[in-house]
Structures are given as structure tokens and as C-alpha cells.
């Protein structure tokens, strides 16, 4: 399993209300949520994000509420993977549950910049910054998590 795309970069403590503002939580439509993803801190995100792109942030990404709307909005926007120094624990689990690949890697989060081209190998945990010709090592996913992500989420992985 691999991801490859252009980076959208954010800082510390990006909370779920910034990822998808509460005023849009009256819908369960994934594409509608995606159309408002990150708009309070990055007005151009929805205009520039492309299928397969990668989101990178620093510490405590996804802090705040426990709602699944935040990782759903990110995934539905086309982001293939989120890399951060650290994630809020409930955001981490919600991401896996809905099939959004996320990796913790402090070195990558600090070195990768907006606009860099990055490739992620989920089997090995190797993150390659193609733009800078740097590599970083994250913890690879165990097989059961790779299966959940490849099937698009926990509920899909339980179907026979």
C-alpha cells in the first residue's frame, strides 16, 4: 500500500473544529463536509487539494471533539494520508475506523513543507520527500490496520 501526492502543511493543535467547522455538522454527506474542510485556516485548501494529496501537521493534530466528521472531511477531500508529529488519540482511532491512513513521524512533520512531493510506503513505514530527497521512518501499520484502510474503513472490513 502506498500514497503519493503534494503536501498541504499545518501547525500545532489543529482541532476538529478547524478541520470541519461545527456550523457544517448538520449534514452527513461526505462531499459536503469535504467542501468545507480546513476553510477556517486555509481558504484555498478545497480549491487546491487533489486526489491522493498528503496532509502534514505538527503536534496534537485532531484535538478537540470526538466526532468522526473531521477525518471523514479530510478523506472525502481527496487526502490519502495525514502525517503528524502526534495525533489526538480519539482522532487517530476515528481515522483508522473510517479508513483514513495516518502516520506519526516527528522528523517528517518537522522537515516536510507545503508543496513538497511526498510518497508513503505503508508496508515499511518509509516516508520519502521526493522534493528534498529525504527519507523518514514511521512505524508501519500492522496487517489488520492495513486491511481496514484498504477496505475503506472498519465497517467495510467486517463484511464478508
Summarize the structure.
The chain is an alpha/beta fold and 160 residues long.
Rg over alpha carbons: 14 Å
Q: For the largest sheet, list the strands in their spatial order.
A: 4-3-2-1-5-6-7
Strand fraction: 15-25%
| Backbone shape | globular
Q: What would you call the quaternary organization?
A: single chain
The biggest sheet, with number of strands, parallel, antiparallel or mixed sense and barrel status, is:
7 strands, mixed
N-to-C SSE series? EHHHEHEHEHEEEHH
Measured between the Cα atoms of the first and last residue, the distance is 21 Å
Number of helices: 8
How does the helix and strand content classify structurally? alpha/beta
Residue windows where pLDDT falls under 50 for at least 5 positions: none
The counted number of beta strands is 7
Mean pLDDT: 93
- The share of residues in helices is 25-40%
Please render the helix and strand layout as text:
Layout (H helix, E strand, L loop, with lengths): L1 E8 L6 H4 L10 H5 L10 H4 L5 E4 L11 H9 L3 E4 L4 H10 L2 E4 L1 H6 L5 E5 L4 E4 L4 E4 L5 H8 L3 H5 L2
How does this model look, in words?
There is one protein chain. The protein has helices spanning 16-19, 30-34, 45-48, 69-77, 89-98, 106-111, 143-150, 154-158; strands at residues 2-9, 54-57, 81-84, 101-104, 117-121, 126-129, 134-137. By secondary structure, the protein is α/β, with parallel strands linked by helices. The protein has a seven-stranded mixed β-sheet.
Amino acid at each position: 500500500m502506498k500514497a503519493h501526492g503534494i503536501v498541504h502543511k499545518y501547525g500545532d493543535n489543529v482541532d476538529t473544529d478547524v478541520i470541519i467547522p461545527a456550523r457544517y455538522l448538520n449534514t452527513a454527506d461526505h462531499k459536503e463536509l469535504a467542501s468545507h474542510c480546513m476553510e477556517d485556516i486555509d481558504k484555498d485548501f478545497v480549491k487546491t487539494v487533489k486526489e491522493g494529496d498528503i496532509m502534514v501537521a505538527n503536534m496534537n493534530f485532531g484535538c478537540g471533539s470526538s466526532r468522526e466528521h473531521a477525518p471523514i472531511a479530510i478523506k472525502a477531500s481527496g487526502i490519502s494520508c495525514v502525517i503528524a508529529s502526534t495525533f489526538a488519540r480519539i482522532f487517530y482511532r476515528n481515522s483508522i475506523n473510517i479508513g483514513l491512513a495516518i502516520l506519526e513521524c516527528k522528523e517528517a512533520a518537522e522537515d516536510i513543507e507545503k508543496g513538497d512531493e511526498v510518497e508513503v510506503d505503508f508496508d515499511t513505514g518509509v516516508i520519502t520527500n521526493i522534493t528534498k530527497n529525504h527519507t523518514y521512518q514511521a512505524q508501519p501499520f500492522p496487517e489488520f490496520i492495513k486491511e481496514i484502510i484498504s477496505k475503506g474503513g472498519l465497517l467495510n472490513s467486517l463484511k464478508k
